[in-house]
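Structure in, sequence out. Go:
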């Protein structure tokens, strides 16, 4: 099935391969600036950064929230990259509308139909992550909630599902990428950071995702993952991210695709 093309800011998704990269959580101006500079230098197309984080433990770092808005505007202006960030509550939409180019709906919110309906009333692109216990059918139906509201700018994000396997944080579903490409017109992005939960597995599974037909990657990278306030165990350091970006074009060429310039 032909994949529809949508715009994430000024970056077209659905034909040439794109990479979205940055920290799981924005922690400080220094951390976010260093990361933005590096991912842009390596060829990433879209900058990611969490401002609000839904965490299992209420004691865990929840993100800087509204305190990061001014910082994001400043970094976006300096580096000229579209910005993607997770939205966790419909009340955040109005505040984030003018500087967030893509709203990411996290795994826990795939079934938050009130949020999906509100996003359907906007024209802002939405990256819908698969719920950690969601079937492919449920995932596609969740996307339809946004589309039915009038917003057709939706891409899907495979990020692993919870299974009986305990060796990795989640079981990354390569099948889902190939299935979506054959049976849906939505572009599909691979988040192999959450999908594996293990730094050493992020790049190999990212390359496999590219070979399976994914339209892009969502990758966590951090100047010093050991000191990250969230998900450092699955973040690439700067050298590892650069190595991934060097390897990707070779895999894409082998399957007849190319990286967006």
């Amino acid at each position: 099935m032909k994949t529809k093309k949508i715009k994430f800011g000024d970056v077209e998704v659905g034909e040439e391969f794109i990479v979205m990269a940055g920290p799981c959580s924005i922690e400080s101006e220094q951390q976010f600036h260093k990361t933005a500079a590096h991912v842009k230098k390596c060829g990433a197309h879209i900058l990611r950064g969490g401002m609000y984080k839904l965490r299992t433990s209420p004691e865990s770092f929840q993100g800087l929230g509204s305190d990061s808005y001014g910082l994001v505007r400043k970094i976006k202006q300096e580096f000229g990259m579209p910005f993607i960030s997770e939205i966790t509550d419909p009340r955040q939409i109005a505040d984030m509308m003018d500087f967030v180019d893509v709203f990411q709906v996290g795994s826990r919110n795939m079934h938050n139909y009130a949020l999906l309906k509100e996003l359907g009333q906007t024209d802002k692109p939405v990256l819908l992550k698969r719920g950690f216990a969601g079937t492919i059918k449920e995932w596609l139906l969740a996307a339809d909630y946004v589309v039915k509201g009038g917003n057709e700018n939706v891409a899907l994000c495979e990020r692993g599902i919870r299974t009986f396997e305990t060796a990795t944080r989640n079981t990354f579903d390569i099948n889902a990428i190939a299935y979506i490409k054959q049976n849906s017109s939505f572009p599909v992005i691979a988040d192999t950071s959450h999908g594996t939960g293990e730094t050493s597995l992020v790049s190999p599974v990212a390359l496999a995702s590219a070979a399976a037909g994914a339209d892009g990657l969502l990758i966590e990278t951090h100047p010093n993952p050991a000191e990250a306030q969230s998900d450092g165990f699955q973040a690439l350091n700067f050298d590892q991210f650069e190595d991934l970006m060097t390897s990707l074009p070779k895999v894409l060429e082998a399957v007849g695709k190319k990286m967006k310039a």
